[in-house]
Amino acid sequence: MRRSLRGTWLVLTFWAACLVLGWLIAELYVAAVRPLVAIVRFEGLIDTASAGQMFRILEAARTDQRIAALVLELDSYGGDARSSEGLYHVLLRLRQEKPLVVVVVGAATSGGYHMAVAGNKIYAPAVSEIGNVGARSGRPWDPSISPDWLSTGPFKLDGGSRFDNIRQLDLVKEAFVSHVVYQRSLSPYNPLRVDAKTLAEAHVYMGSEALALGLIDAPGGLSDAIQAAAELAGLDSYRTVQLLDYLGMSFTPSSYYSVPQLVRSALPGTVFLLDSRIALGDVPSVFTSRNALPWDRPTGGRR
Questions:
Q1: Which CATH number does 32-135+175-268+276-296 carry?
Q2: 282 vs 259: CA distance, rounded Å
Q3: Where are the chain's structural domains?
Q4: b or e along 124-144 (b: 16 or more beta carbons within 10 Å of the residue's beta carbon)?
């Protein structure tokens, strides 16, 4: 009798262990194949180095079949126009294939805001800094005759007159403004409520002001953005991952302290989508005292 009971318990224990093991394997399998909401952070100056890194990261995320949606944490005062607009178009391409939700974690001004408007939805805290829609460049000059060079046309050595430089600067601004107007006017959550002329004045708004004007969609942080991305992707069950860890890639932000070098190495007439509060001179006063750094200043509405 005792042997019979012992045998029965052994059989029951064996089957219970099999059931538990099977359940664990099933859970691990489900977790392994569960769709992913990936999180990636872009911060710092937008230049060819930082943009190039992010281009590769975003392309890898776009082509990865397991990634169902992307959340972009953004904290940038912008940078050079070419890199900023390039990131905007790369983000738009990704958005065509999977939801992209942007969450501003500090600032999204000038080129940083150009990146942000590529998202399906934009979240930002009330005290964040948003906007500064416009372009900047060095003061243009008229072409001059060089005693050491010959040219086949009056503008071959300089690329154009000061009027050409001003016109091209305005074209970059118009493209930026039109992107903002188009993308934000289509928002189903909080469409734009300010006209292009006002946008082009390049105000810096606090998050609460930006919300009232339709420059962002909702106040919130990372958890809100993750939930929104999952909903846009139609996911009931998903797993969040840090994109860089998942892909085995890295991102090294470019520091705002490299702005003087960026300006010195730029070709004449280079256009910048850089926050108006960051000086473009060789030794910007904004860098001479830590108390003067724009990202350390207390927020307080428009500057």
A1: 3.90.226.10
A2: 9
A3: 32-135+175-268+276-296
A4: bbeebbbbbbbbbbeebeebe
Q: What span, in angstroms and rounded, lies between the C-alpha atoms of 226 and 236?
A: 13
pLDDT tens-digit readout, 141-165: 766 777 787 777 777 777 777 778 8
The 10s digit of each residue's pLDDT in 12-68 is: 676 666 665 655 544 444 445 799 999 999 999 999 999 999 999 999 999 999 999
pLDDT beneath 70: ranges in the chain = 1-12, 14-32, 142-143, 281-303
CA distances, 95 to each of 4, 40, 65, 132, 170 (Å): 65, 14, 14, 24, 28
**What is the C-alpha to C-alpha distance for residues 186 and 270, in angstroms, rounded to an integer?**
31
Using DSSP's 3-state secondary structure scheme, residue 139 falls into coil
State in Å, rounded, how far the first CA of the chain is from the last one: 89
Contacts of 48 (CB under 8 A, 6+ apart): 80, 82, 83
Global confidence as pTM: 0.81
Q: How much is the pLDDT for 294? A: 42
Q: Which residues, at least 6 apart from 186, have a Cβ–Cβ distance to it below 8 Å?
A: none
Contacts of 36 (CB under 8 A, 6+ apart): 66, 67, 68, 238, 239, 240, 241, 246
